[in-house]
Amino acid sequence: MSRNLLLRRIAGAAAWLVAGVAVCVLCNPGLLDSKEAAAAEVARSIAVTAFGMAPGGVDMVPDAAGSLVRFEHPPLQLLCSALGIRLFGAHLWAARLIPGLLAVAAALALWAMLGRVARPRSGWYVAIVLLTMPAWVLQARTLMGDVVAVSAVAIAWAGLSIAAFDVGASARSRWAWLGVGIFALLAGGASRGLLSGVAVPSIAIGMGWWAARDKQSGLDRVSSAVGSVCLIAGLGAMALVIAKIFRASPGESSWVLGTVLHAPARSITFDQSVAVVAHALAPWSAVLPFAIARMLRSGQQDAQTAGWRGTVVAGLAVAMFAHGLLAPLAQDAPFVGIPMAAVAIAWALQGLELRRQGSSVALLGVGSLMAAALLRRDFTAIPETALRAFGTSGLTAWPESAAQARPIWTAGLIGFGLLAVVCAFADEDAPKLTDRAAWRDAFANWAGAATEKLTRGWFIAIAVAMVAGAGTLAAIRMRAPWLPSAQLRMIPLNAWWVLAVVPPALLITHRVLSRLWAKAATAWFGGDRGGLLVLGGGCLGLLMLAQGHLVLASSRSPSSALRRYAALRQPGDELAVLGVDPRAAVWSEVGPVTVHKDAEAASRWLASARAQEGARRFLAVDSTSLLAVNRMHREHEHARVNLPVLDARSPGVLLVASRLAPGESSHNPLDRVLLAEAPAPQRAIGVELDGKLEMLGVDLTDERGRATVAVVPGQEYRFTTYYRVLGPLSDGWKAFVHVDGHGRRHNADHELWGGQYGLSSWKKGDTVSESCELVLPASFSPGTYQLYVGLFSGDTRMAVTRGAKESDGRIAAATIHVM
C-alpha cells in the first residue's frame, strides 16, 4: 500500500470518527423535551427487565415498563438505547450513542454505494448532505425520532443496490452486501413495520431493476434475481399493510403496521407529506426537485446506470407514498426517504462540470433560490415548521427563541439559494479584476447581448426616475399637502441611482464570483462546481442546526436550568421542580429532586430557606407557574421584590433560588413587567380607571429604544403603558390603541401582556408596564395624529373615574407626527 493511499484512508477514517462524535454530542447535550426523558426512562426499564441491568440506586417511574406498550416510538430504537444504557450506564449520552452510531453507519453505507456508481468524491458529497440534514442529525442525537428505522432502510437499500447493480464488483463483495441488506431489511421491519421498513427499500430495488430490464446486456443473473425478488416481496408487504389498515380499528397496534393507529385526521395528506420533506430537509430540500429532474433526464446510459437512477427516484416516490398513507392514521408517521433524497442531491450535483452550461443548470440555480425563499417565509412566519425535523409532534416554539432563530434561518436559506445561483452561472473565463480591457469587452458583450430597445429603455428609465425624484424633492420643499408618507417618498428619491448602479454592480459581482467559484472548483474538485455547493450548503446546514433548530427546541427544555444548578450547587443545597418533568432532572444527573404539585407548596419550600445561612434551595419552574410563585414571594417580602432567577436562557423553564449569593444578579423576566421603582414615563397621564387601576403614563420608542414622537409608516415602534394597581381586578380586559386623524384610524388592539399575565395576577400597590408593537401602514398619510388608549372587554370600555377623558371614554395619551 502506497504512503499516499494510507494517508487518505487514515484521513477518511478520522473524518467518519469526527462525524460520529458530532452526531452524538452535537451542540447542546441536554434533554430537548420531556418526551425524550420519557423515552429514556422506558429504555432504562428495558435495560433492567430485559438485559439484567441493576437499577443503579435511582428510582424509576413506576409505570415505565408498562408504558412500553403505549409508547409511540419504535421498539427497536428503544432496545438500542437500552443496550447503550446496559453497556455504559444510565447516562443520557449512553442512551443516544447506539442510535447515533447507526446513523453514521448508514451514511457510510450510502457513501460506499454512491462511490461505486459515480465519481469517488460523490460518496463524500452524500455523506456531507446527509450529515447536515436537520431530520437526519436531530433524530440521530435525540430519542424522539425514527433514526434507527431510517438508518436500517438506508443500509438495506444501499446493500441491496450494490448486490443488484454493481456487476463489476467481485462475487464475494456482492454477496456480503446482499447479506447486509437482508439483515437491515429485517431490522427495518422490526422497527417501523412492513410498509416503511421493508416495502420502501424492496420496491425501490425492484423498480430500479424493472427500469433497466430492457438493457439486459449490462446485468447478470444475480441482478435479475435480487431485483425480481425485491419487487415481489415489496409489493406483497405493501398489500399486506394496506389490507391490515382496512381491517384495523383505532388504538390497534401490530408488527405489520409498526405503529399505533388513531382516528383518521382531517388534515390534508398531501400537505403533510410535502411539508415533512420541505421543512425537515431544509436547506437541501430547496435543490431536491431539480436534482430529481436531473436524475430523470433521458440520454445514453447503460443498464447499471439506469438501474441506479431508477432505484433512487422510485425509492423517494414510494417513501412519499408510505408516509402519505400512514400520516392521517398514525401519530408521527415516519418518512424513510431521507437517504434517497440525499443520494439524489449528491448525484445531481457531482455532475455539474464547469464546461457544461445549459438551461437545466440555470434552472437548478434560480429555482433553488426561489424555493429557499419560500422555505424562509415558512420558517419565519411559522417557526414550528422547523421542529418537524425532530420527527415528533407536540413541540412548540417560544416567541423569544423564534425571534433569535429567524435571522439564522434567513441567512442559511437565502445564502444557500445564492450559492446555488453562483454555482449555476460559474464561468472560468470571467475576466480578472485588474484586466481593464477584458472588463470593457464584458460590458460591450453585455450591451450587445441586450437588444437596442432594452438598452435604450434602461437609460429612459433612469431619466424618468431622475425627473420623478426632482419633482418629489421640490414638492417636499413646498410642503405640498398631497405628498405620500415618508416611506413612499423614498422610492422616487432613490430610484434613479438604484437603476443606474444596480445593473452594472450585479454584472461585476457575477463576473467576480463566477471566476472565484470556478477557480476554487478547479483547484479543489477537479472542475466539479457542485462540490463547492455541497461544501457551502453543509456549512449553512450546520449553522441552521446549531443556532436555529436546537435553539428553538431547547426553549422549553429544562436542560439549561439544570446545568446551571449543577454548576452552582454547594454541599447542602437542594433542588425541586414545579411544572417540570422530574425525569428530566434524573437524566440530567443533578442528584435527588423534590417534586411540588402547586405554586403555594413551592413558595413555602423556598421561603423556609431564606432565613437560613449557608445552604440554598433552588426551584426549576416552568414559565406558566413563575407568576404564581413570584406573587407569593412578593407577599412575604416587605420590599415587594421579585423572585431571584439565576437562569432564564430557556424561556420555558427557569431556575429560581431562595436568595442571591454575593456577585450574582437576577434575570427574572417579570422585572420588565412588574417594576420595583416608579417609572418616569415620556408623557405622564394620571388617569384612574374604575377606581382600581391608575394609568401613570406612556412611552413611545423606536427600534433602538429612543423616545420619539415622530413616526415613519412601515417601521416598528414600541408603545408602553405604565399602571399602578389600586384594587383587585378581574381578567377578560384587553388594551386598545387608536391612532386617529385626517379622517382615518389605525387600531392596535391587543391582549394584555400577550395573554400571559391576567389582571387578576396583580396585587394592590404593584406598578406594572405593558407594551405592544406599533406599526403604521406604509400608505398612512403624513401629518399630526392623536393617540388614544384604554381597556375594553367586548363592547364595554373600562370607565375613567378620575382625570381627563374623551366623550367616548377614551384617554388621549399622546400626539404623534407621521412623517
Task: Explain what you see.
It is built from 23 helices and 18 strands. With 819 residues, the chain is of the alpha+beta class. It is globular. Residues 24-29 and 57-74 have low confidence and may be disordered.
What's the gist of this structure?
The chain has 23 helices and 18 strands.
Task: Please tell me the overall pLDDT.
Answer: 78
Total helical segments: 23
Q: What's the total count of β strands?
A: 18
User: How many domains comprise the coordinates?
Assistant: 4
Secondary structure category: alpha+beta
Poorly predicted runs are: 24-29, 57-74
Helix proportion: 40-55%
Key terms:
4 domains; six-stranded antiparallel β-sheet; seven-stranded mixed β-sheet; 53% helix; single chain; alpha+beta; 819 residues
Topology:
Elements: H1 3-25, H2 34-49, H3 75-88, H4 92-117, H5 120-130, H6 134-140, H7 147-165, H8 171-211, H9 221-247, H10 269-280, H11 288-295, H12 303-326, H13 338-350, H14 359-381, H15 399-424, H16 436-449, H17 452-477, H18 486-525, H19 530-553, H20 559-568, E1 574-578, H21 582-587, E2 594-596, H22 599-607, E3 617-622, H23 623-636, E4 645-647, E5 653-657, E6 674-675, E7 683-689, E8 693-701, E9 710-711, E10 717-725, E11 734-741, E12 744-747, E13 750-751, E14 767-774, E15 783-793, E16 796-797, E17 800-802, E18 811-818
Helix pairs in contact: 1-4, 2-3, 3-4, 4-5, 4-6, 4-7, 5-13, 7-8, 7-9, 8-9, 8-12, 10-12, 11-13, 11-14, 12-13, 13-19, 14-15, 15-19, 17-18, 22-23
